[in-house]
Amino acid sequence: MYKISLITGDGIGPELSDSAISVLNTINDKLDLKFEITTLPAGDKALHETGKALPDETIQTIKNSDVCLKAPVGESAADVIVVLRRMLDLYANIRPAKSYPHMSALRDDIDMVIVRENTEDLYTGKEFSLGNAAVALRIISEDASKRIAKYAFETAKQRNNMKKVTCVHKSNVMRMTDGLFAKSCIEVAKNYPDVLFEQMYVDACAMNLIRQPEKFDVIVTTNLFGDILSDESSQVVGGLGMAPAANIGDNFALFEPVHGAAFDIAGKNIANPSSFLLSIKMMLDWLGAKHHDTKCFTVAQKLESVIFDLVKSGVKTKDIGGDRSTSEFTREITNKL
Ligand code: ATP
């Protein structure tokens, strides 16, 4: 029995959460993998109702669970996810970009993952006014850089791909901060002679993700660059509706879609739940590895193939060229499971 804490979020968050609960309940019933799900408030609605975007009880319940699923939250995201990442030391943000068939994608031959440092950089919120200017502190440490580099090389080693790590930075301009990040990655690379290593400036990387995305395997980069590049890579393979993410630490992990609350389509039952459901696939793989539970791997694989096959057969939501609603698409998945 795995205890899952589930933040239901804002915008399309509650619709995606309904879909996630349906799928998890089906796995419970049909595939003999047991979950106890506790839904939790956090985000704009929680802020409005309780005065806190991340209520104390929510934090406590997450800490008492085996794993956390988080639907997107709205304007208060910085007070929720950024805080949770740091509080739980979820230092690795993993964002796969993988081609699925018959999508409105730019390319259909991509299988890469962005490993983004999750605790430092301009996202720590250390900002202040200085006269009539505003200043943001960018902190990059050797420890955090080496830790994420190691994670990226281990990921490349385990993946069935080119076994290549591309370190993305801008050390020609930010010589100290990105210089340290690059130097740390170069040092870690020496311990992985079987993994190819290359460096790329972030602007060149943004271009190459469009020009020759098939050349990437694992990208390792700092927090802000990773955030931007992963939205781009998700679009190359078909859009944010198919883009899952994991926030991983040594003892705990949180899984969420790459995208935000998408208020423009909220409440219309048209959001693509795949981003969240593929996050559940990543969650199952993580639980399987942590608890040596092969059943988790089997169900993870099954869930991904069901989504893959449905999309291939043209059963898909509007964002990727289909006509199914969120709930219809979810029902197709639970039927196939
Ligand atoms: P944030 O900065 O919080 O990531 P954002 O302003 O980048 O948010 P998102 O909410 O991430 O915006 O979404 C951008 C657009 O992509 C949305 O307006 C929506 O049209 C589309 N979109 C995002 N997620 C989905 C989804 N699951 N299904 C369908 N369309 C989506």
Q: Give the fraction of residues assigned to helices.
A: 40-55%
Query: What's the CATH superfamily of the largest domain, by name?
Result: Isopropylmalate Dehydrogenase
CATH topology of the largest domain: Isopropylmalate Dehydrogenase
Number of strands: 12
Query: Uncertain regions: pLDDT < 50 for 5+ in a row?
Result: none
Named CATH architecture of the largest domain: 3-Layer(aba) Sandwich
The oligomeric status of these chains comes to: single chain
The spatial strand order of the largest sheet comes to: 2-1-3-12-11-4-5-10-8-9
Characterise the protein shown here:
By secondary structure, the protein is α/β, with parallel strands linked by helices. It folds into two domains: 1-91 and 240-337, Isopropylmalate Dehydrogenase (3-Layer(aba) Sandwich), CATH 3.40.718; 106-236, Isopropylmalate Dehydrogenase (3-Layer(aba) Sandwich), CATH 3.40.718.10. The protein has eleven helices and twelve strands. It has helices at 13-30, 44-50, 56-63, 77-87, 142-158, 177-189, 202-211, 223-236, 274-291, 294-312, 326-336; strands at residues 2-7, 35-40, 67-70, 92-98, 111-117, 127-130, 133-136, 164-169, 196-201, 218-221, 244-248, 253-257. Strands 2-1-3-12-11-4-5-10-8-9 form a ten-stranded mixed beta sheet, with helices on both faces. Helix 6 links the parallel strand 8 and strand 9 (196-201). The longest helix has 19 residues, at 294-312. The radius of gyration is 19 Å and the shape is globular. The two termini are 19 Å apart. Adenosine-5'-triphosphate (ATP) binds at residues 12, 77, 240-241, 259-262, 264-265, 271-272, 275, 319. Adenosine-5'-triphosphate binds next to loops.
